[in-house]
UniProtKB/TrEMBL annotation:
Cofactor(s) listed in the protein's UniProt record: Mg(2+)
Domain of life (superkingdom): Bacteria
Listed name of the protein: 5-formyltetrahydrofolate cyclo-ligase
Pfam (any one): 5-FTHF_cyc-lig
Gene3D superfamilies xref list: NagB/RpiA/CoA transferase-like
Keyword 4Fe-4S listed: no
Gene Ontology MF terms in the entry: 5-formyltetrahydrofolate cyclo-ligase activity
Reactions accelerated catalytically: (6S)-5-formyl-5,6,7,8-tetrahydrofolate + ATP = (6R)-5,10-methenyltetrahydrofolate + ADP + phosphate
EC number, UniProt record: 6.3.3.2
InterPro entries per the UniProt record, alphabetical: FTHF_cligase (IPR002698), FTHF_cligase-like_sf (IPR024185), NagB/RpiA_transferase-like (IPR037171)
Source organism of the structure: Microbacterium aquimaris
Similarity section: Belongs to the 5-formyltetrahydrofolate cyclo-ligase family.
Length: 198
């Protein structure tokens, strides 16, 4: 990684993290309700039997109500569990599933772990992001878990990043290992990005 790109990523992440922390509780709650509706709309667009999603932290666009609703409707939801080797295990979300603090203090499910390849069976991936740009490039939070996962999948399903509306940018700094996403879901819209030219 070039020092210039690394510095640009670090600075942008810090700015985005600070913006999220300044969001009022009312604004965050309202955005979470809107996001829930957009995610339901996304899942309703196709024949979706299984998805992967993540459990949001207090400073991320809220996904927990969506996950609970999807499970209640009979959709199989895989939730990520971080591993020390940089890969993700997966656990099936349940209506009364326990949540604990994971490797980096993130909320993660407690229960039987499925290996990294379990995600190959989902019809749709919903991933966290700090920002996305209008070409579909995703800026993550710097640990590379989702870039590794997406980059290693042979038949990768559609991947949508969850961000606030102000986090859809003209451009984000990126490198070769960074993986683009199919689209983004914000509280007010679902965006589709054109696939990169071959």
């Amino acid at each position: 990684m070039s020092d210039t790109t690394e510095d640009a990523k670090r600075a942008l992440r810090a700015e985005l993290r600070e913006r999220r922390q300044l969001l009022s509780a009312h604004a965050a709650e309202s955005a979470g309700e809107q996001l829930h509706a957009r995610l339901d709309e996304l899942v309703g667009r196709g024949d979706i039997a299984a998805i992967s999603c993540f459990l949001s932290t207090p400073f991320e666009p809220a996904t927990r109500a969506f996950v609970e609703g999807a499970v209640a409707r009979g959709i199989r939801v895989l939730l990520p569990v971080t591993r020390a080797d940089g890969l993700l295990d997966w656990a099936v979300a349940t209506e009364d599933g326990d949540i604990a603090e994971g490797l980096f203090g993130l909320p993660e499910p407690v229960g039987e772990l499925l290996g990294p390849i379990a995600v190959n069976d989902v019809d749709l991936m919903i991933v966290p992001a700090a920002a996305v740009d209008r070409t579909g490039m995703r800026l993550g939070w710097g640990r590379g878990y989702f870039d590794k996962t997406i980059g290693s999948m042979e038949g990768c399903p559609p991947v949508y990043a969850v961000v606030y509306d102000t986090e859809v940018l003209d451009e984000v700094p990126s490198e070769l290992h960074d993986q683009p996403v199919t689209g983004a879901v914000t509280p007010t819209r679902i965006l589709e990005f054109a696939p990169p030219a071959a």
